[in-house]
Amino acid sequence: METFTYYPGCTLRTKAKDLDTYARASAEALGIALEEPADWQCCGGAYTTARDEIATKLSAVRTLNSAKEQGRALITVCSACHNVIKQTNYDISRDEDMAMKVNNYLQLPEPYAGETTVYHYLEMLRDVVGFDKLKEKVVAPLKGVKIAAYYGCLLLRPSAALAMDDPENPTIMEDFIRAIGATPVIYAQRNECCGGYITLEDKSQAAKRSGAVMGSAKDQGADMLITACPLCLYNLKKNSGSDLPVYYFTEILAQALGLKEGNDE
Amino acid sequence: MNKNLKEQVLRSSGVNVLKCMRCGKCSGTCPSYDEMEYHPHQFVYMVEKGDIETLMKSESIYKCLTCFACVDRCPRGVQPAKVVEAVRLAAVRQQDGNRLSADQIPSLLDEDLPQQAIVTAMRKYAK
User: Fold this and answer.
1) CA separation for the pair A204, A210 (Å, rounded)
2) CA separation for the pair B13, B32 (Å, rounded)
3) Domain A2-121 listed as CATH 1.20.1050.140
């Protein structure tokens, strides 16, 4: 069994427990051990791209360094955590000024310079487990279910740092959907933003964006939509005005692996 | 034109605004276009001119969703979202410049709102 450092992040402990619980259960069934680093901190939710920001990047570096010290790759599930940690890792390995200031502050036993490999859980399924292998482990295939994969913005962009997939024509979530026996639905808005944190001060903008995403998926005949992001799930469910069901990708993964009852919403 | 503010935004963003060829693709792909007074391509142009204070006073700096669509789709690699971020930081870092305070958070909550939304908003709207 291969062991990885696993970073759940703040929301997976609270409002997005399903994203976390089924990620852990499915990993175990797939022969992957996930271990949380001690005393992890919230990633901050958004990466601050400004070069003169250091304090806002420290918690992500602490997480990356924990994995480095354990000699393991790091796995994230939440799209926002993944984006923050991946961008931090990208920048600290290229920006000497940032690396110097971060390391002067943290005073680690050995300076951190971007050594840790970071996988999103979906990348772990594709690159470590393999979608062919996953397919073999499926006991309850979601036959005939048409699923719209929602990437949003955080999983794919900025693509130079995230490097998960083709940012304009991604396939990783569609390949995942095929592996669990369902049918992927391709729709125009799959890699456009849901509105994100704007819901806190402008519900109408969040409604416009999330409504466009849900409408686009529904027009292409989707039965449900899947996401890796708690804030996308919130916007798509609460602000879109659409009745298309939205689930975390880990929920349907667990269902296909026989670890969870089917959704009957 | 405020030279010091322009220099701060250029250094903070790390963006070379002179690379922009004014094609407007950033604004064309921006999901917040309709909500903005100044659009991504205008941010780049106005920073080049040093007209930073106008942008700092505009609601537009709070409309960017940081979705990086403009960053990935710019044919010249200008990275307009980083310019917007640098201008917004110049605004919220000022004395009493916070857009959102922790005291306001309880009134904004509902039972499903993920923590992620709160921490992200605090990163975007406050220092």
Assistant:
1) 10
2) 20
3) yes
pLDDT given at position A265: 47
**Residue written as token pair 């499926």:** A138
Instruction: ipTM value, please give it.
Output: 0.96
pLDDT per position as a tens digit, A38-74: 899 999 999 999 999 999 999 999 999 999 999 999 9
Which residue reads 């994969």 in tokens?
Answer: A149
Contact B67 A192 (CB under 8 A): yes
Residue B49 has pLDDT above 60, yes or no: yes
Instruction: In whole angstroms, give the CA distance from residue A68 to residue A114.
Output: 9
Q: What is the CATH number of domain A134-256?
A: 3.40.50.11810
Which residues between 99 and 128 in chain A have a beta carbon less than 8 angstroms from any beta carbon of chain B?
A: none
Interface contacts A/B by beta carbons within 8 Å: 131
Say if CB A179 and CB A258 are below 8 A apart.
no
- Residues sharing a CB contact under 8 Å with residue A13, sequence separation 6 or more, in sequence order: A20
Q: Where are the domains of chain A?
A: 2-121, 134-256
Chain B residue with CA closest to A212: the answer is B31
CB contact, 8 Å: A59 with chain B?
Answer: no
Q: Phi/psi at A177 (nearest 5 deg)?
A: -60, -40
At which residue do the structure tokens 């369902």 appear?
Answer: A182
Question: Is the CB of B66 less than 8 angstroms away from the CB of A16?
Answer: no
